[in-house]
Amino acid sequence: MADRLLLSKNGAPERQPGGGRRRLMPGEDESSTVLQDAEHWINVYAELLAFSRKVAASIRTAGESLDGHSPDGQATDLDLLHAHLVRMEERLAYWTARRAALQGATSA
Q1: Which of 23, 9, 1 is CA-nearest to residue 86?
Q2: What is the DSSP letter of 12?
Q3: Which residues lie below 8 Å from residue 29, measured CB to CB, with a gap of 6+?
């Protein structure tokens, strides 16, 4: 799995598992000009985001914070979940905009 390069609190580079936000899912093709592809990925990311938000809400209900760190300064699972939520939101926004662009192209 690809790692994302981050700067730690002291400015030194460190890697965080999970890859960058532009990491695509298998079969995801940003260059597709097929409207149904955009609609498919909107559905995929909307479902993933809804599920991930439920997980986050359960964690919050249990009294934990999505921005907490472990005592040794390493990223916690909650940090990774937060990064995952951000990535899912960004991918959903991308495909929503892509669908609008493709709809505009087919009506022109």
Answers
A1: 23
A2: -
A3: 37
